Each structure stands twice: as C-alpha cells, then as structure tokens.
C-alpha cells in the first residue's frame, strides 16, 4: 500500500458519475436517485454509484463492473486496513459487537451488535450507552421517566341528600341473595334459547280482521307454522293441504308455500300469513298500513314498548366453532376447496381461514379436528339436515359432532367385537368409511337361556342402517362387513356382521345360473319375504337337538346367531338383501335341550358338528324327493338351503381346520363364522364336505344312514 495516507481521496464529483442523477429501474420502471458508495465494508464497491429501487428492491451499480482494489486511493486503503484490524473475528462475521464486556442483550448467550454511529470508544449498543448516560447521539439519549400524575380525589358537587342514602340502604336490605355465576350463565343461555316469543297474524276469511298470536319461540330460529297447529286449532284456523301464503317483506309480495317450510324471524317484527284463497283482509301489509309495514319505522323502533319486538339479529359469534351448522358448513366447504390449492402452505391456509371465519382466532389443529367431523358427516349425508334446520335447536354444530362420534363408535371394532378379539386385517389399507342407508328388516331371534325363538317383520317401517367399508373379510363368494342399525330411533344399538353375496365364475357360466340369480347375487333385487325362505339353519339345529334328545345322545353346544335380513333401500322389494348376524362373545353361556356339558370336550364338539351336517344332508335328500317343491318368484328351486351362523362356546371356539374344510374363519381366540352353502346342482362347500365325510360313533348311535358304501 503506497502513497500519503493524509491525502484525501477523490470526491464524488471527481469519480465517473452516472449519466444523470436519477433514472428509472430497469425491472419495474420506478424512478430512483443514484447514491455514491463511500463505505469501507466492501473495497470493490468504494467509489461506485448505486441505486436501490424503492419498489422492487433491485440493486443497480455504476460503473457496472466493480473497481480493482489496487486502484483505490491510498488513504482509502489505509482506512480499510485500520478498520479491519480493529475488528474481532466474531465482528468480522456478524458485524461490530458492543464494547461493554457485561453486555448480554436480549440473547444472554452473546452481546448485542454495537451502533457504528455511537460516539463512545469502543462503540456500544443503544441499551448499554443509554445506561451509561448517553453519548450525545439522539438515538442513545437516556429515556426520561415521567412521574405519574397524582390521583384526583372524587368530590360531589353537593352533599348527598337523605333520600339518596335511604334508596341505597333499601337496595342493600332488599337485594336478592347472591347467585352462582355459573348457574346465572346457564340460566341466561336457557333464556336465550327458549325464552323468546314471536308474533304472527293470519287471515282465514276475506274482509276480516287478522287473528293475532304470540307464541314461544327460540330466538334467532326459523319459524315453522306447522309447529303451531295446536294454537291454530284453538282459533278455528284450518290450512287445507298443508299450504299457506306468507308475506315476504324483502319481496313485498305474497308467496305460496307448505307449512313445513321455516321463515326468517329477523326480516319483520310481525309475521303475516293468510289461508290460500283469501285475497282481501283488514290490515293487509300490502295496503301500506303503517302499523303493519314490513319495513319498521326507525323512530318507532328507537323507543319500543315491548322488548321482544326489538331483538338483536343473531350473529354467528366470535368463537370457534360457531354455534350453528348453517354458519359452519359454507365456511368449511370454502376451506376444503382452499386446501386443494394450499395443501403444504400453512401461511396461505391461515389467510384463507381468516377469510372463512372473519374476526375469529383459530389454530390449524382445531380447524383440522372439526374439518374431519364435517367430512365424515358430509359423506354420511347428515350435514344437509342440520344445515336446513337453521338457527334452531335442531341445527347446532355440537349435535352434528355428537352424531359423527356415535357413528365412529358404531363402526369401531373395539366396541362391536369382544375385547380379546382383534379386528381381522383388511385386504387393503383403505380408510374405513360409513355408508348410511334406509332399510326394512326381518329379524329371526332366540333366547339363549330358555331356547325360545320367534320372528319379527317390520314391513312398513324404515330403519337407519350403517355399513362400514371396506369389508372385514373378503371371500370367494361373499364379503363380510361390520354393520349397525337402529331399532328404536335413538341411535345405532345393534352391532352385527353383514354379508353380501356375489356370483362366482362357476355359477355365472353354469346352465342353471338363472335360477341362482333369483336368490343371492351381486346387488340382486328380490323380496325380503322370499329371502326369508333361503335360510333355515336355526330350524334345522332345533330339529337336530330334539332328534338327539329323543335318542338319548349327548351333543356339544353349537348355535346360530340371531339373524337379520336387511333389504335396501325401500320396502318395494327392489333393494339388495344383506344377511346380518349378531356378534356373540365366547363367554356366552349356552344351555340347550339334550346338552349336559358346555365346551368341555373338543372331540365331542367335532363329532356333534359332523353329525349335524350328516343330519342336514339327509333332510335335504328327503326334500329332493318332495312332490311339491317350493317356488320362489316363479323359479323352480327345489333343493336350495342356506345356513349362516356363528358358533360360540364357553371355553374354546370352533376352528375350520379341525374338520379340514374351508367353510369358516377363525381369529384363533374366541369367534368363528360358520357357513354351510348348498345347491343341488353344484358341488360346493357343503357337498364337498359331505363327500369327504366319515361317519363317527355319534352318527352310528343317532342311526344316521351312511353316505358312502
């Protein structure tokens, strides 16, 4: 480094200057000034002119090529060398640090950065410099503390009169006892829901005065005239065909609508109705009567006589979730659409969340939890009913969430199966979904204690049924699903296994497939009464027990579960039939005629099963020779029989491997589904089993005819 350090470096006017003092940005076109760079941080930029765009933050240099460090003036090189030699290694990386050894700043692990404009030596940060009394820099001036203003004592313009003090004493003496604030809050909530009233007028004759009503009604809820039929009957008001004409204030016209449609109570302080056919009445709002105007006079509203006429319109609220589904559903749909575009961008999702729920502070985790409830309810078809209920007690979001949780409990394997039975693995890792449908069903039942049985058929009643997909078990001929349905109208209470049958390849190509398609198939439609004749496992088992009892033979306890035939979706016989059965825990104690031991002998269990199959086969052979075989929907199906059941014992479950025949499944712990499927033209599981059957000593004692010579 050569030259005289005391000689001043060239001024900006002596350096190569840009063409003009201002110029437009080459990227956005914004006009900015050129500034001379005289800093000592970057030697290659000293002496150049720069322009930083105020709009797009782009940097422009003049000259465009950086200068050579060796070409810098000697005094500039000298000052740069001194500046760099005084900095510590940490300062060279992160700037100048505060010169106060005790400075810890906001981060106690390291000192703050020093202010390059500080007049102290070494330079301090603003906090340390202000604590030392300042350095003359305006930014480092000590903070002046202002003494708090003295509290002014309150004084009365005139002394209180005895009447004033007496009124205060009376208020204290006659005040009601203190009330729990939580109880007061609950009472106020109840009064907000149930303490409101609504006024409505109705004309039932031409040129007559309106009949006026004031009835209790939840505040903010939509008004349904059908709910007031008892009040109407007391005043001899009859609505033919369930129709009424309602005066719509925004449209200023009469509209014809059913009495089941709700109307908004916020559009007018009085609701106006008339019986269809009434065209003229005293006080019609269409006549411009000021007392019944659909648009209230602001002067009259300012000083009401009755407080219920000036109810504040319902507002969605400032807390999440909102109270009613009709407010939550549109915002949820907006967010679900937004998530398709901003799935990985939480910042954009929060911005969309603020648009969907303005003025409400929501965390994403809270939103995701309620989003899941909304998605499940939407798939189950429940959102529309709650949304149409509006701001009424039937449209609350909390009730929708509770309904979704009931569905989750209904499909949960831990609630529908015994505690010791893990759910069977699904063939695919699909997320379970609930399919809701309306069904009629026939129920075949028996009690395990006394062995009684019966049948119930609800032909004229629809029940809510919930089928969980994907299936629990996928077989070659049928799929088994977890299902639940409601028999009382108060939520799912019956958990069972639902089986849907489909046609296999050998059946489809068989010459007699038309007969088979009339029974079970893939979404085949037929009457539930016809389907009732396709299963008779419990009947055959009762006959077998009686037969063994008459022979004095001890048998093992086997049984068929309660059976439900579900026909979807209506009562007209056009829906597919599902065969459902109760889930029986292995600890169920079964007592039946002719049985002395319960699950004590596994060998007795296998012999009983073989003997029962042998007995059933003999009954089918006798049915084959019956002169008048049954007819189902005009098709000749003489020898068709179908058994569906579940075996359970007190100590041990039946396993299909015990009889070397794939006619059931077992999880190895407590339950087994046992199927016997027979058709006289086809050699399926039932006849395949009987073909390989070897009679046991129980078959000989029962006197069953040997199948093979």
Automatic annotation (TrEMBL):
<feature type="region of interest" description="Disordered">
    <location>
        <begin position="175"/>
        <end position="201"/>
    </location>
</feature>
<protein>
    <recommendedName>
        <fullName>Alpha-type protein kinase domain-containing protein</fullName>
    </recommendedName>
</protein>
């Amino acid at each position: 480094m050569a030259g005289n350090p005391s000689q001043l470096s060239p001024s900006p006017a002596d350096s190569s200057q840009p063409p003009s003092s201002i110029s437009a940005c080459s990227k956005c076109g914004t006009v900015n000034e050129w500034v001379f760079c005289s800093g000592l941080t970057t030697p290659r930029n000293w002496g150049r002119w720069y322009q930083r765009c105020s709009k797009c933050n782009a940097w422009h240099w003049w000259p465009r090529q950086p200068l050579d460090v060796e070409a810098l003036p000697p005094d500039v090189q000298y000052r740069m060398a001194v500046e760099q030699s005084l900095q510590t290694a940490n300062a060279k990386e992160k700037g100048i640090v505060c010169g106060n050894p005790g400075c810890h700043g906001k981060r106690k692990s390291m000192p703050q950065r020093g202010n390059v404009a500080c007049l102290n030596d070494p330079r301090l940060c603003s906090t340390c410099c202000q604590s030392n009394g300042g350095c003359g820099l305006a930014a480092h001036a000590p903070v002046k503390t202002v003494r708090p203003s003295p509290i002014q004592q309150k004084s009365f313009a005139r002394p209180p009169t005895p009447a004033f003090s007496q009124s205060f004493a009376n208020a204290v003496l006659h005040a009601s006892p203190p009330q729990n604030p939580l109880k007061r809050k609950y009472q106020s909530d109840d009064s907000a829901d149930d303490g409101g009233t609504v006024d409505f007028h109705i004309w039932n004759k031409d040129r007559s005065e309106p009949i006026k009503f004031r009835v209790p009604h939840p505040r903010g809820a939509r008004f349904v005239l059908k709910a007031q039929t008892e009040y109407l009957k007391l005043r001899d008001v009859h609505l033919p065909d369930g129709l009424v004409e309602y005066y719509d204030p925004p449209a200023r016209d009469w509209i014809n609508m059913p009495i089941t449609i709700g109307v908004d109570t916020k559009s007018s302080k009085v609701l106006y109705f008339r019986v269809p056919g009434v065209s003229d009445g005293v006080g019609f709002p269409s006549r411009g009567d000021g007392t019944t105007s659909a648009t209230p006079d602001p002067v009259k509203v300012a000083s009401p006589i009755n407080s219920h006429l000036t109810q504040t319109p319902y507002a969605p609220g400032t807390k999440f979730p909102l109270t009613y589904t009709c407010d939550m559903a549109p915002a949820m749909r907006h967010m679900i659409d937004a998530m398709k575009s901003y799935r990985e961008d939480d910042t954009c999702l929060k911005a969309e969340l603020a648009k969907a729920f303005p003025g409400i502070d929501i965390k994403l985790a809270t939103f995701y939890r309620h989003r899941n409830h909304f998605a499940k309810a939407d798939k189950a078809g429940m959102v529309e009913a709650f949304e149409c209920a509006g701001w009424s007690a039937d449209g609350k979001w909390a009730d929708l969430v509770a309904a979704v949780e009931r569905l989750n409990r209904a499909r949960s394997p831990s609630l529908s199966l015994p505690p010791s039975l893990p759910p069977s693995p699904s063939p695919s890792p699909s997320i379970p979904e609930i399919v809701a449908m309306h069904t009629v069903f026939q129920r075949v039942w028996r009690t395990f204690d006394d062995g009684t049985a019966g049948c119930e058929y609800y032909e004229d009643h629809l029940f809510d049924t919930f089928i969980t997909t994907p299936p629990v078990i996928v077989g070659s001929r049928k799929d088994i699903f977890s299902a639940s349905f409601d028999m009382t109208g108060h939520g799912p209470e019956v958990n069972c296994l639902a089986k849907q049958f489909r046609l296999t390849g050998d059946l489809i190509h068989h010459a007699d497939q038309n007969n088979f398609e009339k029974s079970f198939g893939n979404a085949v439609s037929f009457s539930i009464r016809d389907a009732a004749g396709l299963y008779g496992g419990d009947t055959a088992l009762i006959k077998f027990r009686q037969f063994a009892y008459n022979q004095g033979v001890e048998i093992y306890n086997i049984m068929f579960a309660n059976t439900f035939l579900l026909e979807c979706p209506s009562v007209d016989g056009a829906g597919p039939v599902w065969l459902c059965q109760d889930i029986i825990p292995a600890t169920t104690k079964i007592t039946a005629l002719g049985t002395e031991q319960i699950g004590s002998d596994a060998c007795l269990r296998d012999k009983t099963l073989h003997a029962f199959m042998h007995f059933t086969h003999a009954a089918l052979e006798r049915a084959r020779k019956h002169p008048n075989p049954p007819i189902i929907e005009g098709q000749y199906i003489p020898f068709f029989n179908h058994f569906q059941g579940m075996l359970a014992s007190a100590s041990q479950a039946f396993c299909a491997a015990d009889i070397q025949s794939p006619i059931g499944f077992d999880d190895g712990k407590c339950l087994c589904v046992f199927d016997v499927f027979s058709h006289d033209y086809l050699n399926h599981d039932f006849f395949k089993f009987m073909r390989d059957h070897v009679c046991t000593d129980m078959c000989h004692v029962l006197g069953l005819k040997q199948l093979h010579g």
